[in-house]
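Worked Example 4.2. Consider the chain below.
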Amino acid sequence: MATIALIIAEEGFQSKEYNDTKHVLESAGHKVITLSMHRGGAISNINEHVVVDMSIDELSPSAVDGIYLIGGPGALRSLDNTTMYRFLAEVKALPNMAYGSICISTRVLAKSHVLEGVRATGWNGDRQLGDILSGNGATYVAESVVIDGRVITADGPASAAAFGAAIAKQFKTS
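Applying the procedure from the previous section yields the following structure tokens:
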């Protein structure tokens, strides 16, 4: 059983991406903890309230097996900042740490420079993801889920269950 952290925006995280991913992971026997910039609660894009177990400042990345960012309209407002960039740099520095993102949060990973040399996907409704990724050393792949070594990315809500399944499979032999 792996312990997996899902990071969500405090306001406006994508409910389906979070819930489907979490459900698949827990059904596979993994423990899921929910993180955000602050401990307490978060509100989804459909006004769903969830408990935030820890803030990213409270978690040592080495205390979990994988860390994944959930998208949604609030992700860039809440997660696209230097605190998150530093946290993600710590994650990448751990040689066996699995990480990734779904939807618009792939842009946060790119800006954090943790996707250099990686093939990735994410939300591309504005047709800018390819440029954002290439500008940060990554390659855009127009697929629903992309696995490149220890990094898993997905394109959006319709791929959330497949994203969760890819993460679960990554830890199946762990």
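The chain has one domain: 3-170. The mean pLDDT is 96. Compare this with Example 4.1 before moving on.
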